[in-house]
Every structure is written in C-alpha cells, then in structure tokens.
Amino acid sequence: MPLQLNRTTKDVLRHLDERLRTGVEPLAVRNHVRGELGPQAFRHAHFAADDFFRPQRATGAVQNVYGQRVLFASGALLSALTETLVERFGPKAVDVLYQAGWQWGEGDFATCMARLEHEYGVPLAALDMALVLESWWWPFRASGWGRWHCDLGRAQVGIVTIEVEQSITAAALGRTGVCECHMYAGLFAGAFCRLTGRTLHGVEFACGARGDDRCRFAVAAPNKIDALRGWRDNGATVAEIQGRLLTLGSS
Amino acid sequence: MSAPMPTHGCTQELPETAKIAELLAELMPTAADAQPLFGRQTAPSPAVDEHRPLEIDYRKPLKRLKPSTGHATFAVAENVAPVTQGLLIPQSELPQPLPPAATTPVVLPPLPEMEALVAPEPIESVVPPPLPEMEAIVATEPAVEPAEPIVPPPLPEVIAHVQHAPPPLLPTVASLRPLQTDTKLAPIEYIPLGDLTVAGYFALVNWQNDPNAVRHPPLAPRFDAQTAEELRKIPFIQLDTMPVDDAWSVAAVLRTFSW
Predict the structure, then answer these.
(1) How far apart are CA B28 and CA B34, in angstroms?
(2) A&B contacts, CB < 8 Å
C-alpha cells in the first residue's frame, strides 16, 4: 500500500481555495508573474508555524496550509527507520530509501505544479524558475528538512547542484563517516524528473554525516550521476568533484 | 344512555350561585317530565318517516314582552355637559353600592303581564317618482389615435458595455489566452463629479490589475539609476512597463539545459 504522503492534487487545490483565498477575483491569465503591489487572489505569505500548520485536535492529525498531512516526529524515528531498513534489506537499504524519496519528490512536485498554476494564475512554463523551486521547497523547510540552495548555473552540462544545510537525516544519524541522505537524493531526483519530464538521477557527494559543512547533491542524466558516484566512492573531495562537474558535459 | 355531564366547578363553589339556582327553581314551572339541563338522556333519533312536524300555530299571535319602564333611558338634553367635562363625579352623584345579599330569600316581584301585540297598520305603498329619463348610452369606440411606437431611451454606453461584457476569464492551466485590453470606455457626462473628470472616475471604477493595460506614465522616476540597476538583478521585480521576455521563466531556463 503506498504511503499517503500527500493528498490528491484536487484536494490540494481545494485546500488552497479554502484557506488562502483573499476574496479578490483571480486575474486573467497572464504570460508571466510580475512583482506588482495590489490585491492578490491568494495569500502567498504564511511563514508562522501556527499559520502554516493546521492541527485537527478532534482527529489528532496535522495538516499544512495546502492540506498535506504532516507527521511530527523526532530524529529517533528516522534513525530507527534507517536501522530497520539496514537490518531487513542490508546493502539494498540505500536503494529503498532512494526510491522512497524519488516517489515522494515526484508526486509532491506534481501537486506543487498544479498548486502554483492555480495560485498565481500563470502556466508553469511562464512562472519564474526560482519562484517555482522555492515554493516547492518551502513546505519542506517549514517541516524541518533544512535550508537549501539550488544552483542552475551548470545548465550547459545538464547538472543541477543542490546544497542543503541542517539536513534532518544527517542530524538524526550523527557522524557516520559516509553519505546518509539518500532520501534527499531521491527527493530531488523525482522532483526534477517531474519538472523536466526527463529521466534524471540524483546522488549525494557531500554529507554532514561524513563531516562536511553541508550536504551537497547533484541531479543529472543517469550516466553523469554514475560517473559522479564513482568519483565519490573513490575518495574524491568535494572541491575536486565540483571542479569535475563541468567536464561531465563532454563525456 | 349517556352519563350526566359534570357541572362547572365554580357553580358549586359560590353560595350565591346556589341561591340563584334555588330562586330559579321556584320560578320555573314544575313538570312531571322535567329533566335537568345537563344529563339529558338523548333519545334515539327518529326515522325520517317518523318525524313529526313542528306543532306551531301561526294563527295565534306571538307573545312578546312589552318593554318595561324599568329600562334605563338616556334622555338627550340640551344642557347636558360634555363627556370630557366633569370627569370627577361628586360623591353624592355616585351610585350607591348595592346592599349586601340578605340571608333570607328575597321575594321577587311578579313578572309583568304580557300583552298581546297588535299588528301594526300596513304601510301604505308609496309610489316612487319615476326615474329621470336618461340618454341612451351608446358604446362608442375610442378614437384611434396614431400612437407612436414606444421606443425605450437609449441605454448609456456604460451600462450597455457592462451588460454585453464578456464573462471574466478564470486562470487556466493548459492554454495561454490573450489578455483583456479593452478597458476603454467612452466618458458620458451623466454624473456630476465636480473637479474629477469623467475619464478619471471610470478609470478608477474599472481599474484592473492588468499589466498590459494602459497606465498613466509615472510623473517622476521611482528609483535612481543605481537602485534600478540593483533591482534588475532580482527576477521578481519588473521595472519596465512593457512586457519583457523573462530569462528566468521555467521554460526559458529549461531550454538552456543540455541534458
């Protein structure tokens, strides 16, 4: 049975209309978003915890402002989950976590695309890329998954690099000496697969559990990711890997 | 055989009621077949064939009571004081309270004699005067006047524009529709607005947050050159009113990727 991480897109749009509408009629379809002052059809700013999370005390469930089910858990749950998977699947636990993250990211980004188009009244292709990415990651940050920075500067080689600070997995598992944020890698890979419509893989080549200052991920075509994984496993440093990223385009 | 209906409770409580009943019993003629008012045994209804006609002798004049002199009459006098005056009735003129009821039964005076009424004389028939001759009323058709066709006043262009305005466009996902740019309305001097021009009034009423709508040019530059240069680095801020192809849109960014 698939894990119910988020409701259907229809439910998300319904929650959006119920909670974030300001009463102003939505504007006509525009070709792009403009930073204009004035009444908006939806309320976009909801940064406080009591504004973003909506507890349902009758049922004991918590939802965010978009109607997605949220589970408050400590790092002990993630640690126990990882240990249980390792005990059950052995070396394949990495793939299990990666696939779980990939399905999560792919489904969540599909819902986010529909939500953004409905919220801003602009087709996704005409929205700003930074707005789309930040709007998708904001619920994760509000839920404690850390701050991120998405770098699209290596478009000529087809690689997207992502940096995550305060990774919840690294904080839960502690200093293990290896990269542990496999779920994050699958999450980013699934999201960009949905965004680009291509088959992309993700890998983590720097992790706080390994002693690095922050977790770093790369999303690219499968062959490039395999190469990058090889560099990581062979002991290349983060600076070396980042220096070699631009050479992946020619391979 | 029906059970006697219970009497009202108050009739058994007041002693005066019992005394009244005694007096009535004395006055009422005793009959062998006298039955109480209540508790009368209802006989079965006779059949239609067995129904006997009422025994009423119309030849006998009806006995009616002659109005007695004891009735109070209200004599109309010229020197009667109006009702509004003299509301305070002196004590001497107040009616004396009735004496308390005597313990002994009071003997009422005999009833007045009932005299036979004499039928009044027949009223002589008065022949009413003849009706005045009336002119024959001939129904005539009303004069057909050439009526002009009713032409409603022309609607103001503003109202006509609103009535025939297309429904507002809701944002969609799959298509990019052209923007609404027809926001110009012909100013009509129907509303006196003083110093505010009609065009300005309708511009405020019909304002829409449409980036492609014709806007009033800024009177002064909002930002200096250095600030505008800094603001241009932020993709969310658009300083130019003319639409510019965004280099940071999703489609534009994805086009730059060589996967």
Answers:
(1) 10
(2) 101
